[in-house]
Amino acid sequence: MSSALTPFIFKEDTIFILDQRKLPFKKEYVRCDTYKDVIKCIKEMVVRGAPVIGVVSGYGMYLAVRNYKGKDLKKYIIKVAKEFVSCRPTAYNLSYVVNRIKNLVIELQKDTPYKEVLKLVLEEVERIKEENRKSLQKIVENGIKLLKKNFCVLTHCNTGVLACGDIGSALGVIIEGYKHNKVSFVYVDETRPYLQGARLTMLELISAGVPCCMITDNMAGYVIKEKKVDCIIVGADRIAKNGDTANKIGTYTLAVLANYHKIPFYVIAPTSSIDKNLSTGKEIKIEERSADEVKYINGKLITLKTAKVFHPAFDVTPAELITAIVTEEGIFRYPYNFK
After folding, report:
1. What is the domain partition of the chain in residue ranges?
2. Catalytic residue among 237, 244, 275, 315
3. CATH code for 3-137?
4. Which residues neighbour 191 within 8 Å (Cβ) at sequence distance 6 or greater?
5. Per-residue pLDDT tens digits of the chain, which is 339 residues long
6. Does the annotation mark 19 as catalytic?
7. Domain 139-333 -> CATH class
8. How far apart (Å, rounded) are the C-alpha atoms in residues 104 and 330?
9. pTM over 0.90
10. What is the C-alpha to C-alpha distance for residues 20 and 37, in angstroms, rounded to an integer?
Protein backbone atom coordinates (compact mmCIF):
# COMPACT_ATOMS: atom_id res chain seq x y z
CA MET A 1 0.00 0.00 0.00
CA SER A 2 1.41 3.40 -0.96
CA SER A 3 2.18 5.36 2.21
CA ALA A 4 1.12 8.52 0.40
CA LEU A 5 -2.39 7.12 -0.01
CA THR A 6 -2.87 5.08 3.16
CA PRO A 7 -6.59 5.40 3.96
CA PHE A 8 -6.12 4.72 7.68
CA ILE A 9 -3.44 4.07 10.28
CA PHE A 10 -4.03 2.09 13.47
CA LYS A 11 -1.47 3.00 16.12
CA GLU A 12 -1.41 2.70 19.91
CA ASP A 13 -5.12 1.89 20.20
CA THR A 14 -6.10 4.87 18.07
CA ILE A 15 -7.22 4.93 14.44
CA PHE A 16 -6.24 7.84 12.22
CA ILE A 17 -8.45 8.12 9.14
CA LEU A 18 -7.38 9.97 6.01
CA ASP A 19 -9.97 12.66 5.25
CA GLN A 20 -10.81 11.79 1.65
CA ARG A 21 -13.16 14.77 1.37
CA LYS A 22 -10.09 17.02 1.25
CA LEU A 23 -8.16 15.09 -1.38
CA PRO A 24 -6.41 15.70 -3.72
CA PHE A 25 -5.45 19.11 -2.33
CA LYS A 26 -4.89 18.36 1.37
CA LYS A 27 -3.71 15.28 3.21
CA GLU A 28 -5.17 15.33 6.71
CA TYR A 29 -5.96 12.54 9.15
CA VAL A 30 -8.86 12.52 11.59
CA ARG A 31 -8.06 11.00 14.98
CA CYS A 32 -10.59 8.49 16.31
CA ASP A 33 -10.38 7.44 19.96
CA THR A 34 -13.91 6.04 20.26
CA TYR A 35 -16.26 3.97 18.13
CA LYS A 36 -18.53 7.02 17.86
CA ASP A 37 -15.65 8.89 16.20
CA VAL A 38 -15.32 6.08 13.65
CA ILE A 39 -19.06 6.03 12.90
CA LYS A 40 -18.98 9.79 12.37
CA CYS A 41 -16.11 9.44 9.88
CA ILE A 42 -17.93 6.71 7.97
CA LYS A 43 -21.25 8.55 7.93
CA GLU A 44 -19.71 11.88 6.87
CA MET A 45 -17.62 10.30 4.08
CA VAL A 46 -14.25 11.02 5.67
CA VAL A 47 -13.61 7.41 4.69
CA ARG A 48 -15.53 5.61 1.93
CA GLY A 49 -15.27 2.55 -0.26
CA ALA A 50 -16.91 -0.71 0.82
CA PRO A 51 -13.78 -2.79 1.62
CA VAL A 52 -12.05 0.01 3.57
CA ILE A 53 -15.09 0.99 5.63
CA GLY A 54 -15.45 -2.69 6.43
CA VAL A 55 -11.93 -2.89 7.90
CA VAL A 56 -12.24 0.52 9.58
CA SER A 57 -15.52 -0.51 11.20
CA GLY A 58 -13.69 -3.56 12.60
CA TYR A 59 -11.23 -1.28 14.36
CA GLY A 60 -14.20 0.81 15.51
CA MET A 61 -15.72 -2.30 17.12
CA TYR A 62 -12.38 -2.91 18.84
CA LEU A 63 -12.45 0.64 20.24
CA ALA A 64 -15.99 0.00 21.49
CA VAL A 65 -14.82 -3.06 23.43
CA ARG A 66 -11.69 -1.30 24.68
CA ASN A 67 -13.63 1.67 26.06
CA TYR A 68 -16.52 -0.30 27.59
CA LYS A 69 -16.92 0.12 31.36
CA GLY A 70 -20.25 -1.62 31.94
CA LYS A 71 -21.24 -5.12 33.06
CA ASP A 72 -23.03 -6.55 30.02
CA LEU A 73 -20.55 -6.49 27.13
CA LYS A 74 -22.63 -8.77 24.89
CA LYS A 75 -25.74 -6.58 25.10
CA TYR A 76 -23.57 -3.52 24.52
CA ILE A 77 -21.79 -4.94 21.46
CA ILE A 78 -25.14 -5.81 19.83
CA LYS A 79 -26.18 -2.16 20.26
CA VAL A 80 -22.88 -0.88 18.85
CA ALA A 81 -23.13 -3.23 15.86
CA LYS A 82 -26.57 -1.85 15.01
CA GLU A 83 -25.18 1.69 15.11
CA PHE A 84 -22.41 0.77 12.67
CA VAL A 85 -24.66 -1.09 10.24
CA SER A 86 -27.20 1.75 10.11
CA CYS A 87 -24.60 4.45 9.37
CA ARG A 88 -24.03 3.25 5.75
CA PRO A 89 -26.70 0.61 5.08
CA THR A 90 -25.93 -0.26 1.44
CA ALA A 91 -22.28 -1.37 1.71
CA TYR A 92 -22.25 -5.05 2.72
CA ASN A 93 -18.59 -5.20 3.78
CA LEU A 94 -19.41 -3.00 6.77
CA SER A 95 -22.15 -5.26 8.12
CA TYR A 96 -20.09 -8.36 7.26
CA VAL A 97 -17.16 -7.22 9.42
CA VAL A 98 -19.24 -5.72 12.23
CA ASN A 99 -21.36 -8.86 12.58
CA ARG A 100 -18.25 -11.02 12.51
CA ILE A 101 -16.80 -9.11 15.49
CA LYS A 102 -20.18 -9.03 17.25
CA ASN A 103 -20.60 -12.79 16.88
CA LEU A 104 -17.08 -13.42 18.19
CA VAL A 105 -17.85 -11.47 21.37
CA ILE A 106 -21.28 -13.06 21.84
CA GLU A 107 -19.87 -16.59 21.50
CA LEU A 108 -17.14 -16.11 24.12
CA GLN A 109 -17.57 -17.72 27.52
CA LYS A 110 -19.11 -15.36 30.06
CA ASP A 111 -16.09 -15.64 32.35
CA THR A 112 -13.54 -14.81 29.61
CA PRO A 113 -11.17 -12.19 31.09
CA TYR A 114 -11.60 -8.69 29.66
CA LYS A 115 -7.97 -8.50 28.47
CA GLU A 116 -8.42 -11.79 26.63
CA VAL A 117 -11.59 -10.51 24.95
CA LEU A 118 -9.75 -7.39 23.84
CA LYS A 119 -6.86 -9.46 22.50
CA LEU A 120 -9.17 -11.80 20.58
CA VAL A 121 -11.13 -8.93 19.04
CA LEU A 122 -7.99 -7.14 17.86
CA GLU A 123 -6.59 -10.38 16.44
CA GLU A 124 -9.84 -10.91 14.50
CA VAL A 125 -9.74 -7.38 13.09
CA GLU A 126 -6.13 -7.85 12.01
CA ARG A 127 -7.11 -11.18 10.45
CA ILE A 128 -9.90 -9.46 8.51
CA LYS A 129 -7.46 -6.80 7.33
CA GLU A 130 -5.04 -9.45 6.08
CA GLU A 131 -7.84 -11.41 4.40
CA ASN A 132 -8.84 -8.22 2.61
CA ARG A 133 -5.27 -7.67 1.42
CA LYS A 134 -4.93 -11.21 0.10
CA SER A 135 -8.33 -11.20 -1.58
CA LEU A 136 -7.56 -7.94 -3.39
CA GLN A 137 -4.30 -9.35 -4.72
CA LYS A 138 -6.13 -12.41 -6.07
CA ILE A 139 -9.00 -10.31 -7.46
CA VAL A 140 -6.58 -8.23 -9.50
CA GLU A 141 -4.78 -11.36 -10.70
CA ASN A 142 -8.13 -12.73 -11.90
CA GLY A 143 -9.37 -9.44 -13.31
CA ILE A 144 -6.52 -8.74 -15.68
CA LYS A 145 -7.25 -12.05 -17.42
CA LEU A 146 -10.32 -10.36 -18.92
CA LEU A 147 -8.28 -7.65 -20.63
CA LYS A 148 -6.70 -7.86 -24.05
CA LYS A 149 -3.82 -5.73 -25.31
CA ASN A 150 -4.08 -1.93 -25.03
CA PHE A 151 -7.69 -1.70 -23.90
CA CYS A 152 -9.35 1.69 -23.57
CA VAL A 153 -11.30 1.51 -20.30
CA LEU A 154 -14.00 3.64 -18.67
CA THR A 155 -14.48 3.55 -14.89
CA HIS A 156 -16.76 5.12 -12.31
CA CYS A 157 -16.27 6.35 -8.74
CA ASN A 158 -13.11 5.20 -6.90
CA THR A 159 -12.06 1.59 -6.38
CA GLY A 160 -8.35 1.87 -5.70
CA VAL A 161 -6.17 1.95 -2.61
CA LEU A 162 -8.30 4.69 -1.04
CA ALA A 163 -11.48 2.63 -1.31
CA CYS A 164 -10.07 -0.83 -0.68
CA GLY A 165 -6.63 -0.65 0.85
CA ASP A 166 -3.59 -2.35 -0.67
CA ILE A 167 -3.87 -2.73 -4.47
CA GLY A 168 -7.54 -1.82 -4.92
CA SER A 169 -10.28 -3.76 -6.73
CA ALA A 170 -11.52 -2.42 -10.09
CA LEU A 171 -8.90 0.31 -10.19
CA GLY A 172 -6.31 -2.24 -9.12
CA VAL A 173 -7.18 -4.28 -12.22
CA ILE A 174 -6.86 -1.16 -14.38
CA ILE A 175 -3.49 -0.07 -12.96
CA GLU A 176 -2.00 -3.56 -13.07
CA GLY A 177 -3.48 -3.95 -16.55
CA TYR A 178 -1.55 -0.87 -17.63
CA LYS A 179 1.67 -2.34 -16.21
CA HIS A 180 1.05 -5.49 -18.29
CA ASN A 181 0.28 -3.53 -21.49
CA LYS A 182 -3.38 -4.53 -21.32
CA VAL A 183 -4.69 -1.02 -20.64
CA SER A 184 -3.58 1.94 -22.74
CA PHE A 185 -6.00 4.67 -21.62
CA VAL A 186 -8.64 5.30 -18.97
CA TYR A 187 -11.68 7.59 -19.00
CA VAL A 188 -12.82 8.53 -15.50
CA ASP A 189 -16.34 9.66 -14.67
CA GLU A 190 -16.16 12.59 -12.27
CA THR A 191 -18.86 10.82 -10.19
CA ARG A 192 -21.25 13.41 -8.85
CA PRO A 193 -22.04 14.55 -6.25
CA TYR A 194 -18.95 13.65 -4.19
CA LEU A 195 -16.61 13.67 -7.20
CA GLN A 196 -14.75 10.52 -6.18
CA GLY A 197 -13.65 10.01 -9.77
CA ALA A 198 -12.37 13.54 -10.20
CA ARG A 199 -10.69 13.84 -6.81
CA LEU A 200 -9.58 10.31 -5.98
CA THR A 201 -9.40 8.09 -9.05
CA MET A 202 -7.60 10.75 -11.09
CA LEU A 203 -5.16 11.18 -8.19
CA GLU A 204 -4.42 7.45 -8.06
CA LEU A 205 -4.10 7.03 -11.84
CA ILE A 206 -1.86 10.08 -12.29
CA SER A 207 0.28 8.97 -9.33
CA ALA A 208 0.65 5.56 -11.01
CA GLY A 209 1.55 7.13 -14.36
CA VAL A 210 -1.53 5.73 -16.15
CA PRO A 211 -2.73 7.83 -19.14
CA CYS A 212 -6.20 9.07 -18.22
CA CYS A 213 -8.83 11.72 -18.86
CA MET A 214 -11.66 12.90 -16.64
CA ILE A 215 -15.15 13.32 -18.08
CA THR A 216 -18.44 14.47 -16.59
CA ASP A 217 -20.88 11.66 -15.90
CA ASN A 218 -23.22 12.74 -18.71
CA MET A 219 -20.42 12.48 -21.30
CA ALA A 220 -20.10 8.71 -20.92
CA GLY A 221 -22.38 7.75 -23.81
CA TYR A 222 -20.62 10.08 -26.24
CA VAL A 223 -17.18 8.90 -25.11
CA ILE A 224 -18.08 5.22 -25.43
CA LYS A 225 -19.34 5.81 -28.96
CA GLU A 226 -16.69 8.20 -30.26
CA LYS A 227 -13.54 7.19 -28.36
CA LYS A 228 -13.85 3.44 -28.91
CA VAL A 229 -14.04 2.38 -25.28
CA ASP A 230 -13.33 -1.37 -25.08
CA CYS A 231 -14.89 -2.11 -21.70
CA ILE A 232 -16.28 -0.60 -18.50
CA ILE A 233 -14.86 -1.70 -15.15
CA VAL A 234 -16.51 -0.83 -11.81
CA GLY A 235 -16.59 -1.99 -8.22
CA ALA A 236 -19.50 -2.99 -5.98
CA ASP A 237 -20.93 -2.11 -2.60
CA ARG A 238 -23.33 -5.05 -2.30
CA ILE A 239 -24.06 -7.98 -4.61
CA ALA A 240 -27.15 -10.19 -4.25
CA LYS A 241 -27.09 -13.95 -4.76
CA ASN A 242 -28.39 -13.57 -8.32
CA GLY A 243 -25.67 -11.06 -9.26
CA ASP A 244 -27.74 -7.86 -9.04
CA THR A 245 -25.18 -5.27 -7.97
CA ALA A 246 -25.48 -2.09 -5.93
CA ASN A 247 -22.76 0.44 -6.64
CA LYS A 248 -22.26 4.19 -6.77
CA ILE A 249 -25.16 6.05 -8.37
CA GLY A 250 -24.61 6.20 -12.14
CA THR A 251 -23.33 2.63 -12.45
CA TYR A 252 -26.65 1.34 -13.79
CA THR A 253 -26.58 4.00 -16.51
CA LEU A 254 -23.15 2.80 -17.62
CA ALA A 255 -24.35 -0.81 -17.72
CA VAL A 256 -27.23 0.17 -20.01
CA LEU A 257 -24.80 2.07 -22.25
CA ALA A 258 -22.42 -0.89 -22.35
CA ASN A 259 -25.25 -3.21 -23.31
CA TYR A 260 -26.41 -0.90 -26.13
CA HIS A 261 -22.88 -0.46 -27.49
CA LYS A 262 -22.11 -4.17 -27.06
CA ILE A 263 -19.00 -3.75 -24.92
CA PRO A 264 -18.20 -5.76 -21.75
CA PHE A 265 -19.32 -4.46 -18.37
CA TYR A 266 -17.23 -5.93 -15.56
CA VAL A 267 -17.82 -5.79 -11.79
CA ILE A 268 -14.75 -6.34 -9.60
CA ALA A 269 -15.32 -7.00 -5.89
CA PRO A 270 -14.32 -9.25 -2.98
CA THR A 271 -16.67 -12.02 -1.84
CA SER A 272 -17.19 -9.95 1.33
CA SER A 273 -19.35 -7.70 -0.89
CA ILE A 274 -21.69 -10.60 -1.76
CA ASP A 275 -24.73 -10.72 0.51
CA LYS A 276 -25.97 -14.29 0.25
CA ASN A 277 -28.95 -13.42 2.43
CA LEU A 278 -30.46 -11.42 -0.44
CA SER A 279 -32.00 -13.25 -3.39
CA THR A 280 -32.15 -10.22 -5.71
CA GLY A 281 -31.22 -6.56 -5.87
CA LYS A 282 -34.78 -5.58 -5.00
CA GLU A 283 -33.93 -6.42 -1.38
CA ILE A 284 -30.93 -4.07 -1.23
CA LYS A 285 -31.57 -0.99 0.89
CA ILE A 286 -30.49 2.12 -1.02
CA GLU A 287 -29.04 4.87 1.15
CA GLU A 288 -30.42 8.34 0.54
CA ARG A 289 -28.13 11.17 1.57
CA SER A 290 -28.45 14.87 2.29
CA ALA A 291 -29.80 17.26 -0.36
CA ASP A 292 -27.01 19.69 0.53
CA GLU A 293 -24.41 17.25 -0.83
CA VAL A 294 -25.96 17.85 -4.26
CA LYS A 295 -26.86 21.52 -3.87
CA TYR A 296 -23.36 22.58 -2.78
CA ILE A 297 -19.94 21.95 -4.33
CA ASN A 298 -16.98 22.85 -2.10
CA GLY A 299 -19.29 24.92 0.05
CA LYS A 300 -20.71 26.90 -2.86
CA LEU A 301 -24.45 26.79 -3.55
CA ILE A 302 -25.09 25.82 -7.20
CA THR A 303 -28.89 26.06 -7.24
CA LEU A 304 -31.68 27.77 -5.33
CA LYS A 305 -31.71 27.09 -1.60
CA THR A 306 -35.37 26.10 -1.92
CA ALA A 307 -34.71 23.56 -4.70
CA LYS A 308 -35.89 20.02 -3.96
CA VAL A 309 -33.26 17.31 -4.41
CA PHE A 310 -33.43 13.53 -4.73
CA HIS A 311 -30.14 11.97 -3.69
CA PRO A 312 -29.85 8.16 -3.74
CA ALA A 313 -26.18 7.32 -3.14
CA PHE A 314 -26.37 4.02 -5.04
CA ASP A 315 -28.27 2.26 -7.80
CA VAL A 316 -28.71 -1.42 -8.61
CA THR A 317 -27.52 -2.92 -11.90
CA PRO A 318 -29.49 -6.02 -12.97
CA ALA A 319 -27.35 -9.15 -13.25
CA GLU A 320 -28.20 -9.66 -16.92
CA LEU A 321 -26.35 -6.44 -17.79
CA ILE A 322 -23.12 -7.58 -16.12
CA THR A 323 -20.73 -9.45 -18.43
CA ALA A 324 -18.69 -10.89 -15.56
CA ILE A 325 -18.27 -10.54 -11.81
CA VAL A 326 -14.70 -11.04 -10.63
CA THR A 327 -13.85 -12.02 -7.05
CA GLU A 328 -10.85 -13.62 -5.40
CA GLU A 329 -12.54 -16.96 -6.10
CA GLY A 330 -12.60 -16.52 -9.87
CA ILE A 331 -14.45 -15.07 -12.85
CA PHE A 332 -18.21 -15.61 -12.86
CA ARG A 333 -20.60 -15.04 -15.76
CA TYR A 334 -24.34 -14.66 -16.09
CA PRO A 335 -26.52 -16.33 -14.88
CA TYR A 336 -25.07 -15.89 -11.39
CA ASN A 337 -25.89 -17.99 -8.37
CA PHE A 338 -23.64 -17.18 -5.44
CA LYS A 339 -24.04 -19.76 -2.68
Report:
1. 3-137, 139-333
2. 237
3. 1.20.120.420
4. 156, 157, 158, 197, 198, 201, 217, 248, 250
5. 444 789 999 999 999 999 999 999 999 999 999 999 999 999 999 999 999 999 999 999 999 999 999 889 999 999 999 999 999 999 899 999 999 999 999 999 888 999 999 999 999 999 999 999 999 999 999 999 999 999 999 999 999 999 998 899 999 999 999 999 999 999 999 999 999 999 999 999 999 999 999 999 999 999 999 999 999 999 999 999 999 999 999 999 999 999 999 999 999 999 999 999 999 999 999 999 999 999 999 899 999 999 999 999 999 999 999 999 999 999 999 999 998
6. no
7. alpha beta
8. 29
9. yes
10. 16
